[in-house]
Amino acid sequence: MLVVQYIALVGIISLMLYVLSEYGKKEFDWRDLLFWESLLIIMLIIALKPIEIALEIKRVLGLARGFDALFVVAIGISYLMIFRVYLAVDKAEREITELTRKLAIELEEINEKLEEIKKKA
Question: Which of 28, 66, 86, 118 would be 54's cystine partner, CB 3.0–4.6 Å?
C-alpha cells in the first residue's frame, strides 16, 4: 500500500468515528448516519483498492483511463450531494416562510385584541 492510502484510511476512519459521535450526540438522525457511513465505507473500499475499482469502472463506463472513471463517479456523487443540500435548504425556506406567516397572523390578532381592550378602557 502507498503512503497516500494510509493517510486516506486514517482520514476516513476518523470521519466515520466523528459521524458516529455526532449521531450519539443527537446531531444526526438515523438517515444521516446511514447516508454518511455508507458513503465513507465506499470511500474506504476505494482507498483500499483504487486501481482495481478504477479499472472496473473504466470497463463499465467505456472510458480511456481508469482514474478518469473515478473522477466521473466522484463528480456524479458530488452533484447528488449538492442536490440533497438544495432540497434541505428549500425545505427549510418553506418552513421559515410558513412560520413567518403564522407569526404575522397571530401578531395581527394580538394587536386587534389590544385595540379592543384600549377602546373598552
Answer: 66
Per-residue pLDDT of the chain (121 residues; tens, 9 = 90+): 788 889 989 999 999 999 999 899 888 888 888 988 998 999 899 889 888 887 887 888 787 776 777 777 788 889 988 998 999 999 999 999 999 999 999 999 999 999 998 888 7
H/E/C letters for each residue in 14-72? HHHHHHHHHHHCCCCCHHHHHHHHHHHHHHHHHHHCHHHHHHHHHHHHCCCCHHHHHHH
User: Interhelix angle for 50-61 vs 66-120, to 10°?
Assistant: 90
Residues contacting 5, CB < 8 A, separation 6+: 47, 48, 50
Q: Give CA–CA dist 92/87, Å, rounded.
A: 9
Whether the Cβ atoms of residue 16 and residue 22 lie closer than 8 Å to each other: no
pTM, two decimals, is 0.60
